[in-house]
Specification:
Elements lengths: L1 H11 L20 H27 L5 E4 L5 E3 L4 E9 L6 E16 L2 E7 L6 E4 L4 E3 L4 E9 L5 H10 L9 E13 L4 E13 L3
Antiparallel strand pairs: 1-3, 2-3, 3-8, 4-5, 4-6, 4-7, 4-9, 9-10
Length: 207
């Protein structure tokens, strides 16, 4: 009976093979199935989060900008034409279309001691101009528009004021104009930016 029990034990428990000389015994460690699954899920979540951040950065719509280009404005006292240049900037990774550009030019009075105290003739703009065409800016790009405004809407008092400031003895003085723009723009993916407004006080000399 004792011999039988010993034989049964030998059948149940096998001896490990002896370690060969010079070759260490390799012991492997296997992750439990639940831990492996948890690790895989964490990797997938990290990947999805990274893709979301990247897509948000590239695809989220960014408002367009309109900027006055310094040093490119003038007023011709003979033709009564105001020349101004503006930059239309697209900050998106899509092409942008611009249309319905409307511009008004107001004559302003400045206090030399306070450049932020301008008083503009809002009710009587010197010029009203609707740009006849639409135009496009590529992704992360801009376009400069050179615009000329004829002051045909000037009132008698405004004409006298401009003529006085443009006299030779007032050569060091500037004319102050407030340029107000509104424009509609849209991205090639369908997102729209309606009625974008821009306002800029511009000082120019007579020529």
């Amino acid at each position: 009976m004792l011999n039988k029990d010993i034989n049964d034990m030998n059948d149940t428990y096998a001896m490990l093979p002896p370690e060969e000389e010079g070759v260490p015994l390799q012991v492997g460690y296997a992750l439990p199935r639940r831990a492996r699954r948890r690790k895989a899920c964490a990797s997938v979540l990290c990947l999805m989060l990274g893709m979301t951040v990247v897509l948000t950065f590239f695809l989220i719509p960014r408002d367009p900008d309109i900027r006055y280009v310094e040093g490119k404005s003038s007023f011709n006292n003979e033709t009564k034409v105001i020349h101004q240049t503006f930059r239309f900037q697209n900050h998106n990774y899509y092409h942008m279309n611009w249309e319905n550009l409307h511009t008004e030019i107001q004559l302003c009075t400045l206090d030399p001691s306070n450049w932020y105290s301008e008083v503009c003739d809002v009710s009587n703009p010197l010029a009203i101009y609707d740009y006849p065409d639409s135009f496009e800016t590529k992704a992360l790009n801009s376009i400069d528009l050179d615009l000329q405004f004829k002051t045909t809407n000037a009132t008698a008092s405004q004409i006298i004021k401009i003529a006085t400031l443009c006299l030779p003895q007032n050569q060091g003085k500037f004319l102050a104009f407030r340029t107000i723009m509104t424009v509609d723009s849209s991205l090639s993916n369908g997102h729209k930016f309606p009625n974008k407004k821009f306002s800029q006080l511009i000082l120019v000399g007579c020529s």
